[in-house]
Design brief:
This protein is an alpha/beta fold. The protein has 10 helices and 6 strands. It has a 6-stranded parallel beta sheet, sandwiched between helices. α2 packs parallel to α3, α6 packs across α7 and α7 crosses α8. The chain is globular and about 50 Å long.
Length: 232
């Protein structure tokens, strides 16, 4: 891990809990975040310690490994859902080695506010990691772009006669960013399009995909897109 992106001076550092059963990864991630100007308030290695640290430190966000002791299966998902229920103001970014759409669906089933899913390979990209942490800490959503891209590509290949095939290249770009959790404003900035143009693309793809009209509810947008991508 290398820290090659400093936090802008006009953005307040976030208070973060880092949870991973691998001490080496945990310490490396904490060091990366500290070097990038964030405040790591606790480093822990299991779910009980995560819950205790959040209760004691009241962080802005938790970075949580998906596979934790004792079974190393889905403890991170269950802990994330528990944190959402007990500390809804704390953003939770789940880190995983695997791109599993079922895990993402479980995270989002009760809503997408303050929840993220990022592949561990992306933590070396400090700018992307900080962006994801900030988004969940401020009540947004952050879904790994590689996961969304692979789902979108697979869905397109296996369903050439479905409405997804009718989307233009730009509409697919908009859909992918929408599924990652970006608002219209975020899509506008990343694609260098005017807000009005993005609104037009969003309305068009909702029509083609038979989604309800966009009413500014980011949670529904993310859930709708992921539900469509996972459908057979």
């Amino acid at each position: 891990m290398t820290a090659d992106a400093a936090v802008p001076s006009d953005i307040a550092p976030l208070r973060v809990v880092v949870a991973d059963d691998s001490a080496l990864f945990r310490r490396g991630l904490a060091g990366l975040l500290t070097a990038a100007g964030q405040q790591v308030v606790a480093e822990v290695g299991d779910v009980p310690a995560v819950l205790a640290a959040v209760a004691a430190c009241r962080p802005d966000a938790v970075l949580l490994d998906i596979r934790m002791p004792p079974s190393h299966t889905d403890e991170g998902i269950r802990a994330a859902l528990q944190l959402r229920a007990t500390h809804p103001s704390v953003g939770v970014l789940v880190l995983s080695t695997y791109a599993e759409s079922e895990w993402v669906a479980r995270l989002l089933v009760e809503g997408a506010a303050g929840i993220g899913y990022l592949l561990k390979d992306r933590v070396d990209d400090v700018a992307s990691l900080l962006d994801a942490i900030r988004r969940v800490a401020h009540g947004g959503t952050a879904i790994d772009p590689d996961l969304v891209a692979s789902l979108l590509s697979a869905r397109s290949r296996s369903a050439s006669q479905t409405p997804l095939a009718a989307l233009s290249s730009r509409e697919r770009d908009v859909l992918q960013l929408m599924a990652e959790g970006f608002s219209n404003g975020g899509i506008s900035r990343r694609l260098h399009l005017s807000p009005r143009t993005v609104e037009t693309y969003v309305a068009g793809l909702f029509t083609k995909l038979s989604f309800p009209p966009d009413d500014g509810d980011l949670n529904r947008r993310v859930l709708a897109v992921l539900a469509f991508l996972r459908a057979s």
